[in-house]
């Protein structure tokens, strides 16, 4: 009678209850998986963070570790070849695994952790998020295999793991959750992974906080008034940030190709890269470009950087990663963006901290093609007060950076310039 009263067919009622039951089952399944992966990967990420801090401090206090960089390179190449990962493509393998049915073997996790630690211990110019994404992706893939998930759910678990480890290392759980869903394919988001990515990211970040790992934060300081004049200045700077992101991608990819072309043997290749980093350190007369450079990033928010700082970081990073050392490109990207914005600030008569912050997330957006992540990252790292300036810079950097990317496996599904399906690889 009630079904007739509201004109609801019995079959429709049955289907509705079935969908509700499936939704509840799915919710509990992903709550369980995200909690487990968040705890496990949070602990792994925390340990990795502590070890990175330890080896970085060791290198800073013992200058001679730099001269061991070629030896560290030989060890890295040997490890990867010994376990059958000689052709490992870094973070690209995680992206490819989500796009297709490829695996991210669990052996990738210890490999990337040890090799990143060796790179940082001996002064290679690299970040840490490459390891975070690969560790999280491989552990997520491992859980999915043991839980007998199908290929679609396995991809969600890989993204869930990526979010967890990124959040543990950076302390930006919301950006970490969105990043793993946004970076795979430009123009679409994998919303099916939203719940597990969010839950695992917050849990992993909570684990890291429990062990006294501070989130990545910067003090932007003064924020100028938002008007036509200041807005125009930031529009001009946005174009420069986009150009910097294109240049960084070109330098990174070109260096890798040149190494492969002239040094086919990976052992020779990585030794040459190590020697070049050592030589450049003494040519420039500073250690500012070794390691991740977190102290230089922080400094750029208070003191305007020199014009060449961001260029030298690009070169150091390209020589390091192109030659086969392991690490990440995102922290060097933040370095490049922050120091470029810091340099431009006095030229445009704008606050240094504000320009450094906008430059940081704008270049990040340009090399990853992730505008939503970039905006959220800015809020988590230096607050919402600068959001009007940030959104202008991020939007323009996204548009003007074209189809370049740090990750060759990233797909451009929809055009940046038209509502058009193009489905092509990034540059």
Treating each run of at least 4 consecutive H or I residues as one helix, how many helices?
17
Share of β-strand residues: under 5%
- Profile the largest sheet: 3 strands, mixed
Number of strands: 3
Report the end-to-end length measured between terminal Cα atoms.
Answer: 62 Å
Low-pLDDT residue intervals, each spanning 5 or more residues: none
Q: What structural class do you assign from the helix and strand content?
A: mainly alpha
Share of helix, binned: 55-70%
Arithmetic mean pLDDT: 92
Order of helices and strands: HHHHHHHHEHHHHHHHHHEE
Strand order of the largest sheet: 1-2-3
Label the overall shape: globular
* Rg calculated over all Cα atoms: 22 Å
